[in-house]
Amino acid sequence: MSKGIKIVTIGGGSSYTPELVEGFIKRYDELPVRELWLVDIEAGKEKLEIVGAMAKRMVKAAGVDCEVHLTLDRREALKDADFVTTQLRVGLLDARILDERIPLSHGLIGQETNGAGGIFKALRTVPVILDIVEDMKELCPNAWLINFTNPAGMVTEAVLRYGNWDKVVGLCNIPVNAVFEEAALLGENNRDLFFQFAGINHLHWHTITDKNGKDRTDELIKVMYGQDDAKSIVANIKDNNLIWEQVENLHMVPCPYHNYYYYTDKMLAEELEDFKNNGTRAEKVKEIEHELFELYKDPNLDYKPKQLAERGGARYSDAACEIINSIHNDKRTTMTVSTRNNGTITDLPAESAVEVTCTITGKGPVPYNFGSFKPQERGLLQVMKSMEELTIEAAVTGDYGTLLQAFTMNPLITSGDVAKEVMDELLEAHKQYLPAFFKEGK
Amino acid sequence: MSKGIKIVTIGGGSSYTPELVEGFIKRYDELPVRELWLVDIEAGKEKLEIVGAMAKRMVKAAGVDCEVHLTLDRREALKDADFVTTQLRVGLLDARILDERIPLSHGLIGQETNGAGGIFKALRTVPVILDIVEDMKELCPNAWLINFTNPAGMVTEAVLRYGNWDKVVGLCNIPVNAVFEEAALLGENNRDLFFQFAGINHLHWHTITDKNGKDRTDELIKVMYGQDDAKSIVANIKDNNLIWEQVENLHMVPCPYHNYYYYTDKMLAEELEDFKNNGTRAEKVKEIEHELFELYKDPNLDYKPKQLAERGGARYSDAACEIINSIHNDKRTTMTVSTRNNGTITDLPAESAVEVTCTITGKGPVPYNFGSFKPQERGLLQVMKSMEELTIEAAVTGDYGTLLQAFTMNPLITSGDVAKEVMDELLEAHKQYLPAFFKEGK
Amino acid sequence: MSKGIKIVTIGGGSSYTPELVEGFIKRYDELPVRELWLVDIEAGKEKLEIVGAMAKRMVKAAGVDCEVHLTLDRREALKDADFVTTQLRVGLLDARILDERIPLSHGLIGQETNGAGGIFKALRTVPVILDIVEDMKELCPNAWLINFTNPAGMVTEAVLRYGNWDKVVGLCNIPVNAVFEEAALLGENNRDLFFQFAGINHLHWHTITDKNGKDRTDELIKVMYGQDDAKSIVANIKDNNLIWEQVENLHMVPCPYHNYYYYTDKMLAEELEDFKNNGTRAEKVKEIEHELFELYKDPNLDYKPKQLAERGGARYSDAACEIINSIHNDKRTTMTVSTRNNGTITDLPAESAVEVTCTITGKGPVPYNFGSFKPQERGLLQVMKSMEELTIEAAVTGDYGTLLQAFTMNPLITSGDVAKEVMDELLEAHKQYLPAFFKEGK
Amino acid sequence: MSKGIKIVTIGGGSSYTPELVEGFIKRYDELPVRELWLVDIEAGKEKLEIVGAMAKRMVKAAGVDCEVHLTLDRREALKDADFVTTQLRVGLLDARILDERIPLSHGLIGQETNGAGGIFKALRTVPVILDIVEDMKELCPNAWLINFTNPAGMVTEAVLRYGNWDKVVGLCNIPVNAVFEEAALLGENNRDLFFQFAGINHLHWHTITDKNGKDRTDELIKVMYGQDDAKSIVANIKDNNLIWEQVENLHMVPCPYHNYYYYTDKMLAEELEDFKNNGTRAEKVKEIEHELFELYKDPNLDYKPKQLAERGGARYSDAACEIINSIHNDKRTTMTVSTRNNGTITDLPAESAVEVTCTITGKGPVPYNFGSFKPQERGLLQVMKSMEELTIEAAVTGDYGTLLQAFTMNPLITSGDVAKEVMDELLEAHKQYLPAFFKEGK
C-alpha cells in the first residue's frame, strides 16, 4: 500500500497518546502512518493541544513522514480513515471518581470497570461509540475500529450487536503484560511459551505450555500465589495474594481483576481505606495525569517519558499499534483481544464478545478454539456475561428495570435496597451523559 | 399389579411422615400400598416409634390393608421395594442450626439450602444418599428413588452423575404450592392455567398461561409484587416484597428463594435479627417439631393434625404420593420435579439435574421442552449450577480446594478470608458427618 | 366463548372436507363451530360446490347450528377467523403427476413429498401459504393457522422463518395412525402406551413405553419387520419390509416414509413399475377422487362415506379438529405435530420446524423434550433438514443455485447432470406456479 | 533436545518412505532424527528391504547422523520412540482392488476412502491402529502418533474415542496441495493468503482471504469451476468440472473428493469405464508401485525419484515431517490436520475428529475456531460424520447391524438389497482382516 495509512485517534488528548505515537514511529518501515488525526472534544481541547504538540515533536525528532492533525471535528477526521482508535473517557476522570466513590460510600466495591462503577462507565461510553460507528459507516466504511476504551469487552459487544459493525477489535493490556511478566517468572522467553487466554475482558483465565508441550500453568500459579511475596502485575490493583487452595484448584491462571471476585472482602477493605483518605485510584490517576501533562508541556520533550509507564496502561498503545500492523500487513501475530465468540467458548452465546487468544490476520482476529470451561470458571464467566448483556441493553434503551437487573446480577453489588440506592445516585450524578435514561416523558 | 406396592421411607421418623401416610391412604384405591417400611437410624429411634405408632393408627382408622413396619435395618427394608422415598436429615436439626448460625456469626446468609449452610447440607447428605443407591442396586434394582431430602436438586444430580442411577426424581413443594396459591391470586382454577417452570431446585422461574392461551405472568407479578401487601407463599421465608422494577423486568415469576439473591440486604438483616434472638428458622422448627411429636404421642390421634401444615412442608408428602401414583399408574400428571436436563434448558449441561415441569409417565418424568433463558435469568442460573457441580464433586471427593471454589462461586458468600473462615468453622462443626474430608492422611 | 367459533378452510373443495365437517360435528358440544368458510380458487369451483353442498347436508342432518359458507374470496372469508386450516394443492393433482413422472422418467424416485417431487411441491406451496399469512396478519391477527398442506414440515418452517408468524401448527396423519395401529400390533390400548416421536415431517422416529415404564420399541420393531408378512400402515406406501438387521439396529421405530431412505432400490423398482403402467400414486388418487366426487354429488349423502378412508388421509382431518379443539379448550391432548424446535431436538437448529410429540395447550403445542439422537438417526435427519432449509430459501428467493444445492443434498436424488436435468424439466413444467424463478430479468 | 529424535514408521516398506526420509534429511538441522525405525510385517518384508536399503543410501549420501533400522518387530521399534508414523495398508493393494471392484460390480462407487470401499478400509485399519496405540501406552507413553493411513479421519477418531490416546494427529495431503496450487491459480504467493479449512478428512471446505483481508474464495471458485478447462488438483481424481451453479452457491471451495458427492453420476460413469478395462485406481497404483520398487532397487539411487510424485501422495510425507518438526520445536506452523473437534465446528459432536486449520504447537494442534456452516455444507457434513461414527463403532464391535446402518447412511451407497449384498460380499472377501466380525459364536 504505497499511499500510506491514515489513523484517527478519538480521545487523542489522552495522556496515552505519546505511547501510540512512539509505537507508530517504531513500526514506520512496515506500517507507514502518513496521517495521524488526534480528535477530542471541547472540554479536552487544552490537553489535545499539549499532547498534540508533543506528538508533532516526536514525529519530527524521529524524522518520519507523518502529518499530525489536531481537531475537534470528528467527522472531518474520519473521512477515508484506515484505522480508528478510540481511547476516550466520557465525563473525564471526574466521572470515574464518582464511579468509585458513590458505591464505596454505600460499602460496595467502587471501580472503573467492575461493579457499579464499571456498569456506569459502559452506560456513558456505549452511546458515544455507537455514534462513532454511525459516522464510520458513512465516512470510512472500510476502516477498522480498534477500541481501547473501557469497559472494552462491553463496548466491543455493543458495536457487534447494536452497531452491526464487524470490523472492530477490543484491546486491553492485561494479556500482553501477563505474557511478558509471567514468562519472566517462569524463567523463560515469552516466545517459547504458548499462552491461551479465554474469557471476557477483565475476567479471563489462561493456560501456559512450553515448547516441549509441557503445561506450566500450575507451576506459574505456585510461583505467583504459593508464597507470601506474590506480586500483582497490574499497577492499579494492589499486591494481593489470592487464597492458595482456591487458586490452586483452578488449574488456569486468573487475571488480576479476578481479585475482586476471588478476594472481595480484602479488596473492599483496601478500597474503603483509600476512600477515607481521598485516594481512590481515579484520584491518584488524576494527580499522575496532571504531572504527565506538566511534563508534556516541556518543548524539549520529544520522546515518551518513562513516567507514563506508571500510569497503569503499560504496553496498551503499543499493543494497539501491533494489531494495526498485523491487520495491515497480515502478520498473523498471536494476540489476545475482544472479538465475536462464534463458538470459540461454547459456554457463551455465539454473538457475544469474548477476550481470547487469536492470530491477527488481514481479515482481523481469528480466534484459537477454546471449547468449554470447567465449573471452576464457567459459572462466574456466565453470570458476568449476562450482566454485560443487560448493561449493554440498558445503555442502548435507557431502560431502568434492565439496568436494575444488571445491578442485581452483578456479583460485586449486594442486591436489594443498597443496589437501587447506589444506582439511583449514580444515575443522578451522571445525568448529563445518560440522555437515554432522561428522555422527555420517561 | 395385584401384588400391592412396597414403599420404603428412609428417615421414616420425620414429622412429615403422617402426611405421607395420609397421601397413601387417600390414594389407596388406585395405589394399593400394602407395605410401608419406615426406616431410621439409632439416633432417631424414639421419633420413629412415636410417628410409626401414629402411622399404624392412621392406617387402621382408614381401614386399608397396609402393613406398617418400623426398622433401623435399612437393608432389610429395601429388599424388593417398589419405591424408596428419602426424607432424612443427616445430623438432625442441630446440624441445621449450625448451618444457619455459623455463617450468620460472620455476617453471611445462614440458610438450610442456600449459601454456606446449603452447601454443607449437601456435603453431609450426598454420601448417605449414594450409599442408599448402592444398596438399591443390590436389593431393589427396579425401584424408583423419590428424594425429598434437601438440597433436592444437588442430591438428584449426585445420584445421576455419581450414583449412575437413572430412576430418581427430586421433589420439592415450592412449585405445587405456587400452582395453588397463584391460581387463587389470579382468581382462576389452577387446572385452567398452564404453569411452566424451569431452573434448578430452589432457583427456578415460571410462566403462566390461561386456557385462552393468554400469558398471565406479568399480571401475576403485578399482583404479587406490585403492591405493598404482597404475601410470600413459603412459610420459612418471611413476607418480603421484591423491588418492583427489578421483578417486573423478569417477565417470569421467580421462586420464593430468589429473595436471597434479589433482595440480599433485607434478607440478611432479617436473619441477623433472628440470629440475635436465637430464633433462626431451624431453632423455630425445632420447637414446632417438638410440639408435633408431643401431639403425635396422643394415642387417640389417628389423622394428620392441622399443625403439620405450619411446619413449612405443605403439600410435600402429598406431592410425593402423587408422583408415585403417576409413575405406578402411568397417569401423566403434570408436575415440576428435579430430573436430568438432557437439553430441556439449553443454557445448562445436558447431564445436570434441573427442576422443570414434566408429565409423569410410567417411565418417569418426561420434561416439557423449555429452550433458553433471557440474560435476566440465565447468568444467575448458570453460576448456581456451577456452584452445585463443585459442591457435589467436593461431597464425593472430600477435596478442600473444590469446596472453597464452591464457596467462592456462591453469590451469597462474600469471597476471601470470610469465606474460608466460615468454611473451616463449618467443616470442624460437622466433622463427624464428613469423613471424606477427614480421611487419614489428609 | 359463547360467540361460537369461525373456521376458514382454504382448499375447501378438497375431497377431505367431509371428514373435517364430520370432526366438527362430532365435537360440537365442546367446540361450537358456528361458521365454516370453505374457500377455493376458480379452478376448484366445481369441486367446492359439490363438497360444499354435501357439507351443508351433513351439518343439517346433524342438527348443529353452523353456517357453511362457500367462497372464492379468501379475504372475505379470513375476516375475524379463529382458526384457518390450509389443505390446498397448488396445481392440483396434475402437478403432482408431473412431480412423480418427471423424476421417474430419469430413474429417480418420484414422490409427492420426497425427492425432487417433494422439493417442487414445496416451491409451489410456500409462496401461497406466505401470502395467506400476510392476509391473516391484517384480517385475523389472533387466529391459528393449522396447516395440513404437504410438505407440512417445510411449510411450517417457512411460516415461522419467513412469515414471522408463530401461531402455526403443521399436521400429518402418520403419527396418529401409528399410535392406533401399533398399539393394536402390541395388543395394547393406545391410551396405555406412551409414544414419543421426534424428527421432521415424514422423517421421524419414535419410541414406545407401556404403563409399567417398559420400553416396547424393540418388540414392536420385531412385530413389524421381523417376519415376512409385515404390513405397512400407510396407504400410499406399498407393503414393504425393511431389512431386518438395519431396522433392528435403530431401536426406534422409523416412519413409513423411511422406506424411501432405507430401501431405496426396492421403492424405486416399484415406482418404476407403476410409472410404466401409468399408475403412479397421483394417477391412482386422481381416479379415487373422481369416484369420491361422484359419490359426493348424491343429494342424499349426508355423512362421510367409508370410501374416503381409502384415499390415504385417514384420521387427517379428525386430527385437525382435535388440535383446534385442544387449543380452543386448552385440553392438553398429546399429539405429534410440526412446531418450532427451540432445543427440543438438540441436533437441529433452534429455529427449525420439527415434528415432535407435544401437549396441545391454550397457547399451542408445548413439545416434550427429546434431546439428542444416536448416530443411527442423527445424520440422515440433519442432511434432510439442511435440504429443507435450502428448499425453503429457494422457494422464497427463486434462486437457481440454492435450488440446485437442495437437489444435490437430497439423498434420493443422484447428484450431477441428472439432478440438473430433472430440476430444469420440473422448473419448466411448473413454470406458471413459480413466478419467483421466472421474474423479469432473471 | 540434545539426545536426538527417534522416529518409528509403521508400514515402513511403503513406496512413500523415500519422501519421508528426504523430509527428515532436509530438516536435519532443526529436527535431528538420529534413529529411524522402519517397521513392516512379514508380507511386506521384501519391500521393506528394498526401500530400507534405499533409505540408508539416502541418509549416507546426505551425510547426516541417522541410523536406519529395519525390523518386523514392532514392539522392539516402539521402545522410547518420540514420534510414531503410521502409513500401513492392511491387506495391501489387493484389498484396495476389492474395495473398488466389488461395489463397482453392483453399480456403486468403488473407492479407497469413500463409499463402501472406504468403510471397509476403516474396518480393516482401525483394529490394527488401536493395537499400535496399546503398544505405545506401554512402550513410548510420551510419543506422538502421526497417522497418514487412510481413512485418516476415522482412524484419528477411533484413536481418540476408543484408544483414549490424545497425542494423535491425522494427516492428509489434500489441504497442503490446495494451498500451493490454488495460490498459483490466484497468482499469489501462498504465504500471502489465509486458508481456513473446516470439515472432516476428504470432505472439507475452505475459504481464502488475502493479506488485505479480501475474501478471494468466490474468485477462486470461478477460476477453478467457471470455465471449461478446470483442472483437478488431486492425481487420483480425474479432471472433473463441477456444475457451476451448484459450486458457485457454496461460497466455500470444496475438496476434490466432493466430486463423489456433487457429481455422483459422472464419477460413477468414469469409474465403471475403468472397471471394465481393469484400470481402477488401485490397479493403476499397483503398476506404479511396481515400477517405483524397480527404481528403488537401483543401488545407485540415493535420492527421491521424481516418479514418486505421480503416485498421488505428493507433499504427504513432507507434511508429516513438518508436523513433527512443528511439534518438536513448537514452530506454530499453520497446517490443516485431523484433530479433536472440541467445539471448533459447532455442527459436529465435541468428541469427533475434524479436519481443520490449526497452528501446530509444542502441545500439538490448536485449531482456529470455525463456528457453524451454512445449510449448503452442513447437512452433508453431518450425515458423513454419523456414517463415520457408525463405521468406527462397527470396526470396534464387529456388529453387523451397525455396519449395515453405516452402509444405509452413506450417500454413495444405494440403500436396500444392493447395500446388503455389497456389504456381504466385502465381508467375505476381507474375512481374514476382520476377526471382530467372524468371532466364534457370531
TrEMBL record, chains A, B, C, D:
InterPro entries: GlycHydrolase_4_CS (IPR019802), Glyco_hydro_4 (IPR001088), Glyco_hydro_4_C (IPR022616), Lactate_DH/Glyco_Ohase_4_C (IPR015955), NAD(P)-bd_dom_sf (IPR036291). GO terms for biological process: carbohydrate metabolic process. Binds 1 NAD(+) per subunit. Substrate binds at R96, N150. Residues 197-413 form the Glycosyl hydrolase family 4 C-terminal domain. Its EC number is 3.2.1.86. GO terms for molecular function: 6-phospho-beta-glucosidase activity; metal ion binding; oxidoreductase activity, acting on the CH-OH group of donors, NAD or NADP as acceptor. It comes from the Bacteria. PROSITE patterns: GLYCOSYL_HYDROL_F4. Mn(2+) binds at C172, H202. Its cofactor is NAD(+). SUPFAM superfamilies: LDH C-terminal domain-like, NAD(P)-binding Rossmann-fold domains. The record marks E112 as: Increases basicity of active site Tyr. Keywords: Carbohydrate metabolism, Cobalt, Glycosidase, Hydrolase, Iron, Manganese, Metal-binding, NAD, Nickel. Belongs to the glycosyl hydrolase 4 family. This is 6-phospho-beta-glucosidase.
